[in-house]
Each structure stands twice: as structure tokens, then as C-alpha cells.
Amino acid sequence: MHATDSYKYLAHSNHVYFKIKLNLIILSFKEIFLKTASEIYSDVNILAEELKMAMQKVFDYLKEKGVEIDEALLKYVENGVDISEKDEFKHDFKIDNYPEHHNESWYFNFIDFDANVQLVTRVSLEMGAKKSDVMLIIIIDRKTETYLNRLIIDGWPESDIYGDKRVKYECLEPMKKWHVTAKHRKFEVDVIFEARFPPFNYLSHEDPLEAFKKYGVEMLQVAAQQHYEQGMKVTGTVKIKEKREVKEVRQINCYGHRDHSWGTRDWVNIDRWNWISAQFDDCTINAARVEVFGKILTSGFISTSEGNEHVTNVEVTTECGYKDDERAPKSSTFKLTTKNRQVTLTSHTWKSLYLKRPSERGLTEIYEQIVNFEMDGKKGTGISEYMSSTKKEGA
Fold first, then answer.
1. How many folded domains does the chain comprise?
2. Please, is 154 exposed, middle or buried when counting C-beta atoms within 10 Å of its C-beta (0-12, 13-18, 19+)?
3. Model's pTM, two decimal places?
4. For FRET with 339, which of 98, 157, 260, 323 sits at 20 to 30 Å CA-CA?
């Protein structure tokens, strides 16, 4: 298929939803330009003309690639790309046919070495596939218990308490507080995630025209997402059971992390990624290096009491061979670049978790590593995640 034809195919294959995401990114460009231009120009007429020219460049570029924009669909993103309290909840675009790889998910983790309890959990709503996946992994005294449940769904859930009968996720205060509970024959979890710092909104830091040129419009088919993350403080209890009876209660008091994204995520077409959430006493550090279609995307942030600092480049070197698994990462060095500085973190694996997502087109494998971090003599904890996909021949 010719490159131009492939752009046309992508634009129409996802119908309305693809255009919504495209318009969302175009609005991102509009907002970035407005914020910059308003600092320079006081004359409204000059600002309007400059904005018109900037937007026209985006439309001209997309037209050249054979992508049509339906401006009537801008109503779906009328609030632009800035996140608000309502974005904590599900995003129902009121369309009939969602793309095959539609995904909206909420992710949480905490690492409490004092209580010797670690937790990673995620719930997804995948409207194209009409399913919802609930995953919870808890480690108690280095012993791992895994809960996985796939629900078949006909439409969006009516409630804004997500999950299933055993694991539930509830927003108590938008952008500030979440409640996660789990009831299992071997354990019970009841914890509150409270904000340490404001969330970081990834899309507000992207220039869509440059992104189109650098990565290609087809990227929207695989990993087009509105996405924010946040460092958290976690408190609550984990109850340990024997024969379904509570034998011990452990108090949780530690740092954690959360992630909310919605859009498209085609797991098997993402070649690989490195992702970290690192918690130190004075900051949260998040970074990702993603490889798709032979191209590399990097981003992230550093949160402190002074605000969020955008990470513009991520370099990763990894030594594998944790315990008896030659593929499991043993340690990694992450070099992060921001506008004003370079930060280097080193991770050392404390526990390695192996997950896989098989599909008709291939296999996605994930090493979710519980790690200790070091940075400038400071010690921290968190997650270092390594994902790779293998496509079946002809997929």
C-alpha cells in the first residue's frame, strides 16, 4: 500500500473516533500556540491572524497526507486538551463503532517495604473489543498473588465505580483522592491514594504538527491517547487471610503512583517500551521510552513542590539476568533530559513479575519490576516496566 493511501485508509478505518483524536491533537496545537502568542502579542487582531496561519499549516499538512478533518466533531473536545475534574471518569464519545483497539484504563501501584507489601493494579474498558480487564498483583513477604478477571460488556458501565465484584476503584475527590479495595480468599485491600503533586498532562506538552512530521499520522492508530499521571501518598490496610479468616492486618503508609489514559492502544504493534515511576521523599519521577514502527518516542516528568518539569528525552541502558531469568532486567540506568538539567537514575530489581498478553497477531510480554532507585545519593522505590512484542508472521 502506498504511503498516501495508507493515511487515507487509517483516516477512514476508524471512522468517527479517529477524527475525534485528530481534532483533539489539533486543539492541543491551538492551545500551545495561544499560550505562547498571548505572551508576545497584545493586539487581538494580530493574535487571531497568527493563530489562523498556524492552524492552516496543520490542516495543509494533513490534507497533503490525505487525511480529512470533520470540524463538526470538535464538539467532542470542546474543552481542548487541558484536563479537568470530569476527566477522572470514563469518556463516552457517544459513537456507535469504536476502533478495535480502543482502551481506557486506570492504573495504581504502591511499594511499602516497611509493611513488606507491594501492589500493582489496573482496570480497563475496551469498547471496541467489548471487554473490561481487571488485574491485581499483590506481593506479601515476597510471595505473589495474582488476580485476573475479564468481563464481557455490552456498553459503558453506568456506575463510576469501576472494576468487578472483588476489586473496585472509586474516585473520592477528582485529581486528589482515589479509593481502591479488593476482597480475595487470601487477602483484603483497603487503601486511599492521595495526591502528592498535581497530575502531569502529557498531551499539553506536544506540538501536533511536529509530532505528525516526526512520527507519522499512523501513530494514532496504535498509541493515540490522552494521558496523565500523578505521584501519590498511600494509606490504609492489607489483611492477610488463612482459610478465609483474617490472621493479620498490616498498615500501609507509603508512596505510590497512578495513571489514567484513554484512546487507542494496540499492544502487539508497540515494539517495546521502558517505563518507570520512581518515588523519592521530595519528588516523583516518571519517564517512558517507546518504540513503534521503528521510531522512538520519549517523554516524562519530574514532580516537586515547585511543580511539574517536562522530560524531553530518555536514554536507557539495561543489564539483564535477574536470578534465573536471563531476560529479566537486573538493573537499569535512566538518563532523563529536561529543559534545564539532566537527571540520572539507577534501578536495582527487588522482585520481578512476568506478564503476557497473547493475541491472534502475536504476543506482548511485560516485566513489571519492583525496584529500588538511586539518584544523586538519594534512595527511592517504584516500578520499572519493560515491554516487548513479537508479531506472528504476516500479522
1. 2
2. exposed
3. 0.82
4. 260
